[in-house]
Amino acid sequence: MLQILRTKATKKQIDDAAVDLQGYIKVVVDIDRNILSAGGERHVDGEQMLLADGSDQSALWGGGFDTETKEIDYNSVINLRPNGQNPSREVLSTEIRRTFDEIVKAILW
């Protein structure tokens, strides 16, 4: 179930987000607002939800969170930035990854 999380998630919120992909949660993190969308089957759906909530496209980065291993990844088509800022599906900036990790850990860990 796709949802926007602004504070530390409850066990139910995490379980609801993880149901779509059996324990793996797709996340889109707004690194400026310190919030994220969690759940769903496609990053673009979380991205659209955050944009409708007031996020700026340049602050949104996609990845995932494995609820069992607590592993975080940074792979999503929404990370492709044609202007060369991030010419990969992976988040290449170590600073953005660090911020992404901090937000994911604060909300989902």
Explain this structure.
This protein is an alpha+beta fold. The chain is globular, with a radius of gyration of 12 Å. It has helices spanning 11-18, 43-52, 94-108, and strands spanning 3-5, 24-30, 35-38, 60-66, 72-73. It has one domain. Strands 1-3-2-4-5 form a 5-stranded antiparallel β-sheet, sandwiched between helices. 30% of the residues lie in helices and 21% in strands. The protein has 3 helices and 5 strands.
At a glance:
This protein is α+β, with helices and mostly antiparallel strands and 109 residues long. It has helices spanning 11-18, 43-52, 94-108, and strands spanning 3-5, 24-30, 35-38, 60-66, 72-73.
Count of helical stretches = 3
Q: Which stretches of 5+ consecutive residues score pLDDT under 50? A: none
Please outline the major beta sheet: 5 strands, antiparallel
**Annotation, overall tally of beta strands:** 5
Strand order in the largest sheet: 1-3-2-4-5
Estimate what percentage of residues fall within beta strands: 15-25%
Count of discrete domains: 1
Average per-residue pLDDT, rounded, comes to: 96
Strand-pairing-aware structural class:
alpha+beta
- Kindly provide the radius of gyration, computed on alpha-carbon positions and rounded to a whole number of angstroms: 12 Å
Straight-line N-to-C gap = 18 Å
- Helix fraction bin: 25-40%
* H and E order: EHEEHEEH
Shape: globular
